[in-house]
Design a protein that fits this description.
The chain contains no helices and eleven strands. By secondary structure, it is mostly beta strands. A hairpin with a 6-residue loop joins β4 and β5.
Length: about 120
């Protein structure tokens, strides 16, 4: 019923930049409310970890490893979250997943949804 569609991954050299986007949509055409959206990543042989999150009021949080390099932002009108990644390092190589805590309809409880993932590869 709800889909999160990511875009913007790819291959970049160390020091470069990428911008990820994730749009949330529902089969009904409307999403009642979105509490929080965020980005996680899972590198080769590693556990999935939180990269950055943004709440409905605009507050944000970041993993220590990306502070000062990554910026998360959100367009509430478009139900879209972005991740601007600058000064990329080889250790940022991972599959990046979009995440959203939302209510699809007014009668729904908050549920967590995940995107399909987008590969980010940073070469040295």
């Amino acid at each position: 019923q709800v889909q999160l569609v990511e875009s913007g991954g790819g291959l970049v050299q160390a020091g470069g930049s990428l911008r990820l986007s994730c749009a949330a949509s529902a089969a009904s055409g409307n999403i009642f409310s979105i509490n929080a959206m965020g980005w996680y990543r899972q590198g080769p042989g590693k556990r999935r970890e939180l990269v950055a999150g943004i709440f409905s009021g605009g507050s944000t949080n970041y993993a220590d490893s990306v502070k000062g390099r990554f910026t998360i932002s959100r367009n509430n009108t478009k139900n879209t979250v972005y991740l601007q990644m600058n000064s990329l390092k080889p250790e940022d190589t991972a599959v990046y997943y979009c995440n959203a805590d939302l209510r699809a309809n007014w009668y729904d409880s908050v549920q967590t949804y995940w995107g399909q993932g987008t590969q980010v590869t940073v070469s040295s």
